[in-house]
Amino acid sequence: VDIVGVPEDTKDRDDVLECEFFDTRQAFLSLCQGNHYQYDTLRRAKHSSMMVLYHLHNPTAPAFVTTCNICNNDIEAGQGWRCEECPDFDVCAGCYNKDGGANHRHKLTNHPCVDRNAQNKEARQMRIQQARRMLDLLVHAHKCRTAGCQYPDCRRLKGLFGHATRCQKRAAGGCSLCQRTWSLLQLHARTCKESKCTIPRCRDLKAHLRWTQQQSESRRRAAVNEMMRQRAAEVARS
Fold this sequence. Notes:
Layout: H1 25-35, H2 42-57, E1 66-67, E2 74-75, E3 80-83, E4 90-92, H3 93-99, E5 108-110, H4 118-143, H5 154-166, H6 176-191, H7 202-237
Antiparallel strand pairs: 1-2, 3-4, 3-5
Helix pairs in contact: 4-5, 4-6, 5-6, 6-7
């Protein structure tokens, strides 16, 4: 069937939004569990979707909100106090100012303030742009066959590839040049969407990433099944 109305240029020109919570299913599950994001009702699904989009567009914002153990209100960044010995005891500034932490038997320390100014965002954007330049350079150097190529750093990256094929020490042995090349190949494999990519070790690395995610998912399912089994046993005993 002929499809009419499809533009010739279908390239997506929107900036790629990178967020660690969407790298793996386990990371996204941890975000939802830690913040009680649920999708069992329309009201909860709307709120959860809105908060997920908020974390996607604000990657430097705190992912998990701390709650005061006395008044049960959310504690803003840099406005609370935390116990140095108890694993999960936090007090907001208002409750701390009432008694100075005298109601708790351990010492309370002030929360470190999270810096969310423009400088942090600018530094993150610079890191993203630098990573994209390195990935573009990797693709160019792999396809380039020109001896005196004028592309910036093309010859240097070709030299790294040449060293990696000759080196006897390898990245596992501690070679810094091989480790740098291996890190660049891993970064490419995490972002590559081509099924028949010709970049060295790309398909092997993608297969390893899929295997790692499957192993993580299997461990999560086993933990959930064990928890359900223990709960069923407790109910049966009671």
